[in-house]
Amino acid sequence: MARPLADEVRAIAEQYPESTSAVLPALRIAQERHGGWLPPEALEEVGEALGLTPAYCKGVASFYDMFHLAPVGRRLVEVCTNICCGLRGAQDVLQAFERELDVRPGETTPDGAFTLRAVECIGGCGWPTVVAIDDRHRLNVSAGDVPGIVQELRGG
Amino acid sequence: MADVIVLANADERDLRQLAEYRAVGGYTQLERVRSLEPAAIIDELNTANLRGRGGAFFPSGRKMQFIPPKEQIPKPHYVCVNADESEPGTFKDREIMNRVPHRLIEGSLIAAHAIDSQHVFIYIRGEYLDAFETLRTALDDARGAGLFNGVTVVLHRGAGAYICGEESGLLESLEGKRGQARSRPPFPAASGLYASPTLINNVETIATIPKILELGGAEYAKIGAPPDSTGTRLFCLSGNVVKGGNYELPMGITIREVIYDLGGGIPDGRALKAVIPGGSSMPILTADQIDVPLEHDALRALDTFLGAAAVIVVDDRACMVQLGLRVAQFYMHESCGKCTPCREGTRWMVQLLEAIEAGDATHSQLDLLLDVCDRILGKCLCPLGDAAAMPVASYVVKFRDEFRAHVDQGGCPFGGESSLEGLFAPVDQHTHHPVAEVPA
Amino acid sequence: MSAPELVTVTIDERSVQVPKGTGIVETAAAAGIEIPVFCYEPRLGAAVGACRMCLVEVEGMPPKPQAGCTLFAQDGMVVKTARTSEMARVAQNATLEFILVNHPLDCPVCDKGGECPLQDLTFRYGPGNTRMTFDKRTFEKPIPISPAISIDRERCILCYRCTRFSESVSEDNQLVAVNRGAQTMIATFEDEPYTGAFTGNVTELCPVGALLPTQPRFEIRPWEFQAVPSVCGLCPVGCNIDVDQREGKIKRILSRNHPEVDEGWLCDKGRFGFSHLYAEDRITDPLRRVRSRGLEEISWEDALDDAERLLREANGRIAVALSGSETTEDAYALAKLVRKGLGAHTAMLPEEIGGGLDAFRAPLSAIRDAELIVVLGEDPVVERAPIVDLWLRKARRAGAEIVEIGPAGDVQIAPGTTARACRKLKSGELGDRLRASERAILIWSGGGAGGGSHLAALATDLGFADKPGCGAFFLPETANGRGVAEAWAAASDDEGPEPEPLGLLIVSGDEAAANPNVRALAEQAERVLAITMFHSLAVGWADLVLPGTSYLEREGTYVNVEGRIQRLRRTAIPPAPDELAWIAQLASRFEVELSPSPSLVFAELSERVFGGVTYEDLGEEARLPDRVPLEAAPAESADEPVPAKAPGGTLQLLRYRPLFSGAAVERVPELQFQRPAPEIELSVKDAKRLGVRRGEPVSVRSNGTSVQLRAAINKRLKAGVARIADDHARDLHPTVEVSK
Ligand SMILES: Cc1cc2nc3c(=O)[nH]c(=O)nc-3n(C[C@H](O)[C@H](O)[C@H](O)COP(=O)(O)O)c2cc1C
Ligand code: SF4
Ligand code: FES
Questions:
Q1: Which residue has a Cα nearest atom 18 of ligand 1?
Q2: CATH code for the domain defined by B18-222
Q3: Could you give the C-alpha distances from C193 to C128, C152, C157, C165, C471, in angstroms and in order?
Q4: In the beta sheet, which residues pair with residue B201?
Q5: B386, B327 Cβ separation under 8 angstroms
Q6: ipTM of the complex
Q7: Does the beta carbon of C30 lie under 8 angstroms from any beta carbon of chain B?
Q8: Which of C30, C36, C52, C728 has its CA 20 to 30 A from that of C506?
Q9: Distance from residue A88's CA to the centre of ligand 3 (Å)
Q10: Half-sphere exposure of B289 (CA within 13 A, CB side)
C-alpha cells in the first residue's frame, strides 16, 4: 500500500524551514495520486497535511499551469507554441495533433486517453518544435512526425 | 586559451559523473576556498567583474557584499539558485544542468561559503523534468561523497509560472505561495526567503564561479569584452537559423558571427528580417544592425539589452504584428495579476494587437498601443510589465510601415502566408475552470 | 523610550517634519497633501505596492515613478506628487485608466456609489474619457460569497485588501485569489460561504462595490444615510461604530476606528446583528397576562398602574434580575427605584467579575505591544470578546509568545481548574518570565466565577501594578456586566434580607429573560415583571411585560472589558419609549427622585463611582481611565469546586456560549449560517478510542438526555474532555457518554 499522503508530505516539509514551502511538492504528489488532476478532495488532503485551508491550496494551485483543476487524459501532450517554435512551424505540429487526436487544444479525447494542450515556451527553443509528453521533451518535432508519435503512444 | 568556461570539458567527458568531474579538477576550488575568508572569494569575483547571467547584469560580487553579516541580522542566510529559466528563447540553464550539474553544485556551495550560508535552494522550473533528475542524481552523488560539509541543498521544482523566474516571485513560490512579485525594498539581500538575508543568482552565474576561481579573477576578466562584459556567455540561438542550440562564446562576438558562422545562416534561402538579442522581452534589432557585438554597452547604445543572451532570429516570412501579438499574449498569460498596469495593460495590448492584425484598427490605435506600452513601462511592481511593453513598442517603432499596412489594407499584408499565421496561444485555452469569460 | 527622531521631508515644495520611518502617504497627509491609494491599508500589514495608485516622483531614486505607499520618510527626502510632477500625474492617470479598462462603470446602480474611492479618485486624477473600445472582462455577478456578503467580480480592482485581511488579520485563509494575471478573481473554496467571526470587515475594506453586505442591497444611496457615532453593545469589547440610519431606521453599521479598542475592525455579530430590531416578534406595547388568552396589549397608562401595583403588593419582597446589556444608567435607575423606593436590595447581577483589576488597567492595544501573553480559561477568546482574538493574532505576528492554559491550550488543564492554574503561575518558570517582563499581558477567558479577583491577585504578585506595559484582562460574558454591577452598587449603601418568599421578580433585559437560573427563580416568585424586546422571551411566565429597547436605541454608557466608559447613542427610533423614561415616571410614584435624562442620571452615578466624569468628558472616542491603585491585596474568591473526574469511559463536558448565539443573532437571517454546527469536539485520543472520525454522527448522553451530534476532532483538546456549544448541549449534564 502506498504511504499515506500526509506522511509523505510531512517528510518533504521537513526539508524546509517552514512547512508551507512544501505546498508545491505536495500538490504535485496529490495530483499524481488523483489521476493527473486536483479534485477538491485533493486540495483538502494537502491542506490537512500541511495545516492550510483548502482555499489557500486552491489559490496556490490555480496560479500554476502545471496543476490541473479539471480532469485530464492519461497522457498529456503539450506543444510549445511560443515564438521560437512558432517561427518554425509549431502551429502545424499542433494542428497535426488536433487532427490525429480529434480534439482542440485544452481538450481531452472522449476515451480519456489524451489531453492536448498548447503551452508557453518550455525551454528548448533551439530545437523546434518542442513537444512534451508527460513532461518528457521531444525535440525537433515536425508535423510529419506527429502521426508516428500518436501511434507510438496509443500502442505503448 | 580556451574560451569555454561553463561547459569546459563537457564535450570530451560525461561530466554528469562525479568521478569525471573530479578528474577535470572538479570540486578542488570548493575545497580550496573553504579555508579562505569569504571576502577573498568576493574579491576574486569583483576582479573578474562577473555580472549576473539572469538578465539584469548586476555585479555578482557586489550582490554578495550586500548580504549583511550574521552579527547584524542573526538569521539563517540563504542561497537561491534561479533555475526557472522561462524566458522564451532561453534554454542555456537547461544545458548547464544537463551537462555540467556538478559545476553548478560546486558554484552553489562556494556561493554559500561566500555569504556564510548553510542552506542552498535550487528552484528549477517544473517543465525541466530531465534536468531535475540529472541534478538530483548529481546532488545525491555529491552529498554521498561528503562534499556538502553541513550545507543543505534542496532541489525545489516549480509548477509552471514564468514570474517565478523573477527573483521575488521565486521567493514567494519557494515559500509555498502564489508566485506574485514582491514590492522592493526590502531587497532579498536584507529580507528575502523567510524574511532572511538571501542571495539569488542565475544558474549560469553560479556555474561560472568555480572556473573564475580556478583561472583567477584577473585572468577571467581578460576574456570577452572588458571592462564590463567580461567572460563568456551561453548564447541560445533559435528561430529562423539552420543550427539552433547553445554556444558558449566570449562576450563581444557579433550577432552576424553567431548567426552565420556558428548557426549556419538562415534556412530555406530566406532573408534576415530582425533579431531579438536577449530573449523575448528585449527590444528588437533590424537586419542592418547585426554587426553589433553581443556585449552590454554596444547593445545599450542600440536601446536594447543582452538579457539572458538568447538570440532569436526572425526571417522575412514573419509578420511583425503577429510576432507582437504572440509576445503580448505570452506576457498577459504570465502576468502574476498583482499590479494594475501589468495585469490590465497586457490584456489591452493583446486586444489592440488582435484588432490591428484583423485589420479592424485605426491609425490612432497604433499610437494608442504605443501609449499603452508607455503607460506600463516603468510603472509596474516588477519588470514583467516592462518585458511586455519594451519589445512590442520596439516592433511598432521599427516596423511601423508593416503595422500601418495592416490598418490601410484592412488585414494582414502577408495574406495568411506569415510564418506565424494562426499561432495558437495557451491563454486562449482555459486550463483552469473557465470562470472568467475573456471575449475573443 | 526616547522620543523618535524627527526628519524633514519636502513634499510638493512643502516642508514637513515627521518621525523617521513614517510612511510617505502619512507624511504627505501631514503636509496637507493627498497621495491617493487603493491597496494601501496599514492595518493589513506591510504595504504591497500592488495597485500603483500612489505613484510619486522621488529625487535621487531611479527616474521612474515610485510607489509612495512602500516608502518611508528619510531626512532630506524630496517627493513630488501629481500636483507638481508631470511624471507622477501621468502615472496616476495611467493607473486609473487601466483600472477602468475592465470596470463595468455601473455606478448608477452600485451601492458603493457616493462613497467609492474609485469614483472619487477617478474624478480627481482619472482620464476624462475612455480609449478602451474592446469587450470588457465579464464574470457571473453578483454572487453571494456568504448569506451576508455578495461579490461583484467585474467591479473588483484586485487590490487584494480582502484576501490580505483573510490571510493576515483574521488569519482564516478562506477568501483567496485564484487563477493568475487578468483571470485572477477573489473566491472561496468551492464557493462555500465565507464563514468566520470577522468576514464583514472585507465589505468595508473593499474600495469599490465588489464586496457588499447583502443587508441593504439596492435599497438606499449612501448619501442619504446619517451616521451616528456609537458603540456596539453585543460583547464586552465595545467596538466603536458608526450607525447609518435613514428616517430613524438602521441600514448599516460600520466601524469607527478606536485605535486602542478595535483598530477599526468589527465582528459579524456587531456588524450584521442590528436587524434583530426589526424582528417580527418585537414587542412594541406593554403586555398584561390574561389567564385564558396569554398576553394582551395594554396602554402605557395601564401598564404603569399595573407596575406600581405589583411593586406595592410585593411589599419589599422584590428581587431584580439584571442583564449585562443594560445601560449603566438604566441599571442605576432600576436599582434606585427598588432600593431607595422599596427597600429591596436583592439583585441577580449578570455575572461576578471580582474586583481589583482596575489597578492593572491597560488598553486592549497593549496586547499587540506585548512580548509575553498568558491566556487562561476554558472559553475560546473569540467566542467571548472577538476583537481580543484579533489583538492576540497581531501580537503573535509581531513575535509575541502566547501561552494558552486551558482544556484546549498549550498547557492542558482540566475543566474547573483555571483558578488553581492561575495561582500556580506565581511560582515557576513562566511566572518568573512574567515577572521579569515589562510587556506582559494576562487574559482570563471563562472558567469559573471570580476570575477577576484571581487574576488581580496574580497580577499583584507579578508586580504588574508598577509596569504600565503590563496588564490583566478578565473577559466578561456580557457587554456591560461591569457597568451594571457598579450601577447597582452605586444606588444605595443599604443592605436588606433576601426576600422570603419572593413577591415580585423584576427581569430586566433579554439576557436575564433567557437565563435558565432566572427562569427557575421566577417559578418561585408570586409575580414576574419582565422588560424584554421579544414576545417569545415573555410569554408563559411574565405577569406584566414592558417593551425593552436595544443598545442601538438608547442613550447611555457601557463599561467595557478594559474599564473604559463609552457612550451609546440613540441611533434609531425605538418602537416604545426607552426604559429610563418610564422608570423615572414610576420612581416619582414612590417619591424617588430620578431624572429621565441619561446625562443627568449619569452625572449622579458618576459622582459616586466614576469620579464625576461627564458625557462630554467621555466624548466620541473615550479614553481609558487611569489605573486605580490597589488599597489592599485583592480578596481572592474561593475556588469553585473542581468537578469530579469523569468516570472511566465518560467525558467531562465543556460548554461554551458561542459568539453567534443569543436573542439578537437568532433573529438575523444573514447570520444563521454562522451559528455553530451541531458538533461535539473530541480530543484525538478519545476519537481514536471511540473509533469515530471527523464528521461522523455520534450520540451524546447523560442522565436520560441524549443528543445526536457530529464529531469534530480538536487536536488541542485535552483527552477526557468534550466541548459542545450551549445551543447544542441543551440539558446535558457535566459528565457525558459518547458513542457511535
Ligand atoms: C519577469 C522576469 C523573469 C525572470 N526570469 C528569470 C529566470 O528565469 N532565470 C533567471 O535566472 N533570472 C530571471 N530573472 C532575473 C531575476 O529576477 C534575477 O535578477 C536573477 O535571477 C538574478 O541572478 P543573476 O544576478 O545571477 O543574474 C527574471 C526577471 C524578471 C523580471
Ligand atoms: S474584492 Fe475588493 S477588496 Fe478584494 S481585491 Fe477586489 S477590489 Fe480589492
Ligand atoms: S519557443 Fe518553443 S521551446 Fe521556446
A1: B167
A2: 3.40.50.11540
A3: 39, 15, 21, 16, 37
A4: B81
A5: no
A6: 0.94
A7: no
A8: C728
A9: 10
A10: 19
C138 touching chain B per CB within 8 A: yes
CA dist list (Å): C255 to C54, C231, C243, C486, C509: 25, 9, 9, 28, 26
Total count of residues recorded for chain A: 156
For residue B433, the model assigns a pLDDT of: 39
What beta strand segments (E) does C527-623 contain? 527-532, 544-547, 556-559, 565-568
Please report, as a single letter, which amino acid is at residue C653: L
CB of residue B61 inside a 6 A radius of ligand 1? no
Q: Return the amino acid letter for B419.
A: S
Which ligand has the nearest atom to the CA of C142? Answer: 2
Query: Is the C-beta atom of B366 inside 6 A of ligand 1?
Result: no
Delimiting residues of CATH 3.40.50.11540 domain(s) in chain B? 18-222
Tell me if C94 and B341 make a contact (CB, 8 A cut-off): yes
For residue B389, give the nearest of B402, B403, B376 by alpha carbon.
B376
If you average pLDDT over residues C462-486, what whole number do you get?
95
Look at the domain B320-437 and name its fold: de novo design (two linked rop proteins) (1.20.1440)
- Ligand 2: centre distance to CA A40 (Å): 24
SS3 B436: coil
Q: Strand, coil or helix: what is B286?
A: strand
C520: buried, middle or exposed (CB in 10 Å: 19+, 13-18, 0-12)? exposed
Q: Which regions of chain B carry the CATH code 1.20.1440.230?
A: 320-437
Cite the residue boundaries of each domain of chain B with CATH code 3.10.20.600.
225-315
- pLDDT tens for each residue of C213-265: 998 766 667 788 899 999 999 999 999 999 999 988 999 999 999 999 999 99
Q: CB-CB: which of A22, A67, A123 is closest to B176?
A: A22
Q: How far is CA A48 from the centre of its chain?
A: 24
Position A2, amino acid: A
Q: Taking 90 as the threshold, does the pLDDT of residue C542 lie above it?
A: yes
Q: Please name the residues in contact with A156: beta carbons below 8 A apart, sequence gap of 6 or more.
A: none
A70 at B interface, C-beta within 8 A = yes
CA of A41 to the centre of ligand 1 (A): 35
Say if ligand 2 is within 6 A of residue C206 CB.
Answer: yes
Roughly what angle, to the nearest 10 degrees, separates helices C481-491 and C328-336?
30
Model confidence band, residue B440 (pLDDT cutoffs 50, 70, 90): very low
Distances in Å between the Cα of C243 and the Cα atoms of B18, C208, C420, C577, C670 are 73, 20, 43, 20, 18
CB B361: neighbour CB atoms within 10 A? 23
Which CATH code, of 3.40.50.11540, 3.10.105.10, 3.10.20.600, 3.40.50.150, is assigned to B225-315?
Answer: 3.10.20.600
A52 interaction partners in chain C (CB closer than 8 Å): 173
Cβ–Cβ gap C178/A53 under 8 Å = no
Query: Can you say whether residue B423 is alpha, beta or left, with left for phi > 0 and alpha for psi between -120 and 50 degrees?
Result: beta
Atom of ligand 2 nearest to the CA of C160: 5
CA B324/CA A88 separation, integer angstroms: 16
